[in-house]
Amino acid sequence: MQPFDYLLAIQIPVFRDGDRLFYQTDWHRALSLLRESLGDHINRLKVVAPVLPASGPSSHLLQPADSLDIEAIPSIPLDCRAAAYWVKYRNIWRNDVARAAEGCAIGHFACNDNIRTLDLDAFKVGRAAKLMTVFFRDVDERVRIPQAAQALGRGLTLKERVYLEIDDRAVKYCVRHADLSFLKGRSLISRYGVYSNNVHDIADTSYSLHDVIDSTLVERRTASMKGDRPLRLVYCGRLEPIKGVEAGIRIVAKAREAGANVTFDIIGQGSQRQRLEEVTAELGASEAIRFLGAIAYGPELIRSLAEYDALLFTPTAEETPRMIFDGYAAGLPLIGFDIPYCVERAETDAAAVLMPFSHINKSAAVLANLDKNRHELAVAAQKALKAGRANAVDVWYKRRAELTLETLHKSRP
Q1: Which domains occur in the chain, in start order?
Q2: Is the pLDDT of residue 210 over 80?
Q3: pLDDT at 57 exceeding the cut of 70
Q4: What is the pLDDT of residue 413?
């Protein structure tokens, strides 16, 4: 088969500063790995994306698009309101995707935000252009949205119920019609895998095998846990409400009140940072809880994570974050709320300790018990490192490329 062009059209933004385009460091790396994994099989990787300005507190973490072997195609503003999308920007977006699809053999699509339907519209344009379609989905909204409502102590609103129906139909449509689908986690697989015979699970990692830390470093770190030093926890990700970092802060503060010797470092940036710093101060926990700001994604981040003992993850609803695997690559077990994806990781990897969802006091008791029985985390750290190696990007992108090319050969004999 002759080399072909590959289209990627989803709503992860490209950032613009004058005539220059940039991507966030993690997405920049993902695009680089995708291009590398397909090698000589493709001529061009075309990436159509909505646009945001290259400004804000994390702008220093952006990487230039022209450093990648891709064709970056900026389209409509990502921050447009839903009404503006439907009235003004939808046709522009569809036309941009259609033009980029010319000459392509494969289209890579997702399905998120089914109010402003950028992803679904791009998928339909790809189908109309007769591309082989590859579909990705990483969160089960039928789990996430009810959990978010539960965390707020209420039931679903009418708007949420309507959205869930819209989203469910959109995902079913994409899985049914995609030539190849990748779904993240058992919940999505069990819900939508029945609609196609070519559905596969994904880990969606971005670290390489050579980024995974050496086992001797884990052994040295876990041996030091037997001393009097604090149990060092870390969170690494966006500081947004869905991530539930405030719950993590409250759990750590409550555990310390009960005598636990534990600290918590927070790596990341986001709209909640000021609020989280205020909560930390109000709880009198500023000496034990630090805000380190954002760190560029890459091997240096993995090495930084290796200085800790565990990853603390307390989301307000179902999430499937890549940072769990980044933690594994650093030999960090997961301490997290018992949302379905964390339960899956605990059962699959044996490298997670679960806490009752949204219960601060009970979760603090779990944390205090771990501080007293640190050997549990020491054992889990070795399991985490094993899972980190098994899910490295070398493994994942190789499998993904093989499945993509195999499906293309079947659909384009």
Answers
A1: 4-205+392-411 (3.40.50.2000), 209-390 (3.40.50.2000)
A2: yes
A3: no
A4: 59
